[in-house]
Design goal:
The structure is a single chain. Helices cover about 40% and strands about 20% of the residues. The protein is of the alpha/beta class. It folds into 2 domains: about 120 residues, Rossmann fold, CATH 3.40.50.2300; about 120 residues, Response regulator (Rossmann fold, 3-Layer(aba) Sandwich), CATH 3.40.50. The strands form 2 sheets. Strands 2-1-3-4-5 form a 5-stranded parallel beta sheet, with helices on both faces. Strands 7-6-8-9-10 form a 5-stranded parallel beta sheet, with helices on both faces. This is CheY-like chemotaxis protein. Keywords: Phosphoprotein. One of its GO terms (biological process) is phosphorelay signal transduction system.
């Protein structure tokens, strides 16, 4: 099996270590400091197919490192992939205008999904991503009508799959992945909490962001929903604009 060669740099050491640990089955991984001469030498010697930059938003000192970094990569023609928090990737992406640049919020993108997207970026060469490539959303509810309405609401912006009930959703995720799950809180057989607990027990699904759907507007019930720490919750009947806004905040 042939692996794509990737050079990783940056100052976010935990994120770099996580990428090395989980990305070995997808890539040949090399590392370099962000220092200009060191990075330039590694790029010339290793000829990577992409450059990953792992950053800390809270470190203003990285601005100096980034200026040196930008001076080096503008001479190259390889994809640059920024990893960090939503605030971090948006902040730093603006500095890099000469090379094809992509950004991932590591908090909200499941590792396997991110790795597959990076493979696509590399295999496309230096072309910009196809606009038809959409983030995937899985909608889980026991009401087929609600599934139909939500799918119609989101299909222009996302690749949407629907699942009638929690058991079907878990079966779906045994062989497929998704970027986000809209999960009904109250369902027969397996309710939303039980599904979420199983997702968090599985390393393949534990990091997938979940938004609860609930028709119960009682403040105590809403408090109960939030106690399970979903990425968000949406009240039924679903408001289309509120739904899109909530998803957009989570999926960079």
């Amino acid at each position: 099996m042939s692996f794509h060669r990737i050079l990783i740099t940056g100052t976010n050491k935990p994120l770099i270590n996580d990428f090395f640990k989980q990305g070995r089955e997808f890539f040949e991984l090399l590392t370099s400091s962000m220092r200009g001469d060191d990075l330039d030498a590694h790029l010339r010697l290793t000829q990577p197919e992409a450059l990953i930059c792992c950053l800390n938003i809270e470190k203003d000192t990285e601005l100096h490192d980034l200026n040196s970094f930008v001076n080096v990569i503008t001479k190259k023609n390889i994809p640059v992939i920024i990893l960090g928090t939503k605030e971090g990737v948006n902040r730093y992406k603006g500095f890099i205008t000469q090379s094809p640049t992509y950004a991932f919020d590591e908090k909200y993108i499941p590792p396997r999904t991110m790795f597959l997207q990076i493979v696509k970026i590399i295999e496309k060469g230096t072309e910009a991503p196809d606009e038809s490539e959409k983030k995937h959303v899985l909608v889980v509810d026991d009401d087929p009508l609600i599934l139909k309405v939500i799918k119609e609401t989101l299909h222009d912006d996302y690749d949407v799959a629907v699942s009638v009930g929690g058991k079907t959703a878990l079966k779906f995720l045994e062989t497929k992945t998704t970027d986000l799950i809209l999960l009904d809180y109250e369902m027969p057989e397996l309710n939303g909490v039980q599904v979420l607990e199983r997702l968090r027990m599985d390393p393949k699904t534990e990091s997938i962001p979940v938004i609860f759907l609930t028709g119960n507007r009682d403040p105590q019930k809403v408090k109960e929903v939030l106690s399970f720490k979903p990425k968000g919750y949406i009240l039924k009947p679903v408001n289309a604009e509120k739904l899109k806004e909530t998803i957009k905040k989570i999926l960079v």
